[in-house]
């Protein structure tokens, strides 16, 4: 009987060691594969659509008045004012 117990104990130790080694190898391979795989670049964000000029006459007048006030206050230069005015009028 002692020989039988010794054989069972030896088998248990060998099986436990094999399981431990196998798990360690699997973990190490997983880490290597993860390190080798370059992260995929994120998809580029599309630029926002261009702002459309106001379509109603009242909106255009309001926008032009606001631009004129900004120019009079010195916030906008004449060139900036003319560029924005061209955008609003669509010409």
Would you kindly provide a brief summary of this structure?
The chain has 91 residues and is mainly α. It has three helices and no strands.
What would you note in describing this structure?
There is one protein chain. With 91 residues, the protein is mainly α. It contains three helices and no strands. Helix 2 packs antiparallel against helix 3. It is rod-shaped, with a radius of gyration of 37 Å.
- Uncertain residue ranges: none
- Helices and strands, in order, run as HHH
Mean pLDDT: 79
The total beta strand count reads 0
Give the overall shape.
rod-shaped
Distance between the termini: 103 Å
Strand percent estimate? under 5%
Rg, Å, rounded = 37 Å
Compute the number of helices: 3
The class by helix and strand makeup works out as mainly alpha
Binned, the helix content reads: over 70%
Q: Main β-sheet, in a few words?
A: none
